[in-house]
Automatic annotation (TrEMBL), chain A:
GO terms for molecular function: ATP binding; ATP hydrolysis activity. Residues 20-249 form the ABC transporter domain. It comes from Brevibacillus borstelensis AK1. The keyword Nucleotide-binding applies. SUPFAM superfamilies: P-loop containing nucleoside triphosphate hydrolases. Transmembrane segments: none annotated. PROSITE patterns: ABC_TRANSPORTER_1, ABC_TRANSPORTER_2. This is ABC transporter ATP-binding protein. Keywords: ATP-binding, Nucleotide-binding. CDD domains: ABC_DR_subfamily_A. Residues 260-283 are annotated as: Disordered. The keyword ATP-binding applies. It comes from the Bacteria.
Length: 283, 379
């Protein structure tokens, strides 16, 4: 009983303007630490860009937040729900899109949307309305009967996004949504993302493209499972005296690699070595 | 939040139906394979012994010896395929399998019969297949014994005595399958075995396929519950399995002429229960396997023991107790009892309720384990 009360209290104390908050979130796969004591918070209605080289722990973090993986230790709340114990409540309220196309290729655009509408328990009227809106948003009008497998990369991404948005999630989590997508589709995709943020949706997105990162409200940079810096793009550039984000990150990667090479102990501190205050306030 | 949602269940069912319809080759296999298997096995699985290849070495050609040989042939158990002239020839024939049995009639056979002395004939039997050997031996003994009694009676009549009265006589009556045809026993069992194999494989792939294609990742970030997903995946296959069961049932009764003595309604409803059970078993396999190949291997690892342990091939009563227990965890065991009971004996639920409960328990166990195994995680 006590435990539940404590949980409830924490839920109530949660500032209403925070969509995601983690405290010393850690994921260990046997001996390997994939995510090391990660602390971050994402304000509601903002676009948070999650950056880092391949294998740095981005996807693992995202999967913990979605309830796909159980954290080894630490705390995390998504939309006020505990990632350890309330993952099903989280799942009802978030939209998720993985880097690999994960809809049914042998189902048509329409059938994929119908399936997910059913899974999210949309009523008939709402389903028809949402489908019309999303097909229009994704520019898939006229392709409703086409099999998802026969769509090209950009269309597939936008269909996946549509399926993730059917139930009007409060938080949208995108894992490298634009990897391998042509520049035009990429541009369209990001226009949609910004549109959604303007409507009040919180968006957590991982990417390798610096031009995409530049347009995020907040950026977190993760390397070897540690969150190295966090802040708005302009703050980061200013603080490091760099010309652009790309330079900032190359500098950070080199510093971190040098530290790792110098003494294996160095990297263990995690957020202790943050170069910019983790709570980015001024916006 | 955590209640079973018919809407989510139903959307899984609809999705599966669309996918099955698009996957024509698999659907064709699911419907055609049972028919093909029943046809093949219906002829192959035949434990009736007849037309045993017999070599004869007649060293005393006479009316007596010809009479004996024709008596053997008349039973249809023996079929004379060769004549030999020496033990060496007989041995060679038994070695290379051109004969399974050899009848040796000694040179003095006719003379001894004429004189009324005791005549001896020899039968050499290839015992590598005990079933054939036993049938040959007992049939030959019976024929010769009958012969002896007839001769004895003739002699006694000549001496003016009445017919011989045996002191004890056994009157046997074979129930349920009076002609003791093995096909009548085997076809119901085959129907069960075939349905088990076909339906189990249908669902064994269903979850693994989603894992392999990556569609599972998207599915488990939705609020769908394991029970909704698993039941939704089983449901369309119940109908496919049932359709295919009806085909096999029709072929079994019409082509092989094995009648259903009991209630057809009971047969059909218990068969649906069995289908659900094996489909659940397939789903369970799907939660354990990581790839479709593994699912296939696990399914086959299950099929062979189920053939042997269920009593399909060999009677369970003669197995050691531990093996009988093992057979008890195979749902086919219960279904075979049900099939044979309804087909051959025409019994009702009053005789089969235990087997029905066995299947229900197995189903509940499997679906529970599958739900526990199927966590909405990707580790």
């Amino acid at each position: 009983m006590k435990r539940r009360e404590a949980d409830k209290q924490m839920h109530d104390n949660q500032p209403n303007d925070v969509a995601i908050s983690c405290e010393r979130l850690t994921k260990r796969f046997q001996e390997r630490i994939a995510v090391n004591s990660l602390t971050l918070s994402v304000p509601k209605g903002s676009i948070y860009g999650f950056l880092g080289p391949n294998g740095s722990g981005k996807s693992t973090t995202i999967r913990m937040l979605c309830g796909l993986l159980t954290p080894t230790s630490g705390r995390g709340t998504v939309l006020g729900y505990d990632v350890m114990t309330q993952s099903e409540a989280i799942k009802q309220r978030i939209g998720y899109m993985s880097q690999k196309f994960s809809l049914y290729e042998d189902l048509s655009v329409d059938e994929n949307l119908d399936f997910y509408a059913g899974v999210y328990q949309l009523g008939k009227a709402e389903r028809i309305q949402r489908k019309r809106e999303l097909i229009e948003m994704a520019g898939l009008t006229g392709r409703e009967k086409q099999l998802a497998g026969s769509l090209s990369g950009g269309w597939k991404q936008r269909l996946a996004l549509s399926c993730a948005l059917l139930h009007r999630p409060e938080l949208l989590i995108l894992d490298e949504p634009t990897a391998g997508v042509d520049p035009v589709s990429r541009r369209i995709f990001w226009e949609v993302i910004h549109d959604l943020a303007r409507q009040g949706m919180t968006i957590l997105v991982t990417t390798h493209y610096m031009d995409e990162a530049q347009t995020c409200d907040w950026i977190g940079f993760i390397f070897f499972g540690n969150l190295l810096v966090q802040g708005s793009p302009s703050e980061l550039i200013e603080h490091h005296g760099a010309d652009n984000l790309e330079d900032v990150f190359i500098k950070l990667v080199k510093e971190e690699e040098a530290r790792q090479a110098a003494g294996q102990k160095g990297g263990g501190g995690g957020t202790g070595d943050v170069l910019v205050p983790v709570k980015g306030e001024g916006r | 939040m955590s209640r079973f949602s018919p809407a989510r269940y139903w959307s899984v069912v609809k999705k599966e139906i669309i996918q099955v319809k698009r996957d024509r080759p698999s659907l064709a296999i699911a419907l055609a394979m049972p028919l093909m298997m029943l046809f093949l096995f219906g002829y192959a699985v035949n434990t009736d012994v007849s037309d045993i290849k017999t070599a004869v070495w007649d060293q005393s050609p006479s009316a007596y010896s010809r009479e004996l040989v024709s008596q053997l042939e008349n039973t249809r158990v023996f079929q004379v395929t060769a004549h030999a002239g020496s033990y060496r020839e007989i041995e060679a024939m038994l070695d290379d399998g051109s004969a399974s049995v050899a009848l040796v009639i000694p040179p003095d056979y006719a003379r001894k019969r004429d004189r009324g002395e005791m005549a001896e004939v020899q039968m050499l039997i290839d015992g590598s297949d005990p079933n054939i050997a036993r049938t040959a031996s007992s049939n030959a003994q019976l024929i010769v014994q009958n012969n002896a009694i007839t001769i004895q009676e003739e002699r006694m009549q000549k001496q003016g005595l009445g017919p011989m009265e045996p002191a004890v006589e056994l009157d046997t009556r074979v129930l349920f399958n009076p002609n003791m045809e093995s096909i009548v026993f085997n076809i119901p069992g085959l129907i069960g075995l075939i349905m088990q194999n076909v339906t189990m494989i249908l669902t064994a792939f269903s979850l693994v396929r989603e894992k392999e294609r990556g569609t599972m990742e998207q599915l488990i970030v939705t609020p769908i519950r394991p029970l909704e997903l698993l039941l939704g995946k089983i449901t369309p296959y119940v109908f496919i399995g049932f359709f295919s069961f009806c085909l096999v049932l029709l072929l079994g009764t019409a082509w092989f002429g094995v009648p259903v003595k009991g209630s057809a309604a009971l047969l059909v409803s218990l068969s649906v229960l069995f289908l659900v059970t094996t489909l659940t078993l397939g789903i369970f396999i799907s939660t354990v396997a990581r790839t479709q190949l593994q699912a296939m291997q696990i399914a086959f690892a299950f099929i062979l023991p189920s053939v042997l342990l269920s009593g399909f091939m060999f009677p369970r009563e003669t197995m050691p107790v531990v093996i009988q227990w093992l057979g008890g965890i195979v749902p086919l065991t219960y279904f075979l009892e049900i099939l044979r009971g309804i087909f051959l004996k025409g019994v009702g639920l009053e005789a089969l309720w235990k087997d029905m409960i066995g299947m229900v328990v197995f189903f509940l166990l499997m679906i529970s384990v599958a739900i526990l195994r199927f966590r909405k995680k990707i580790e």
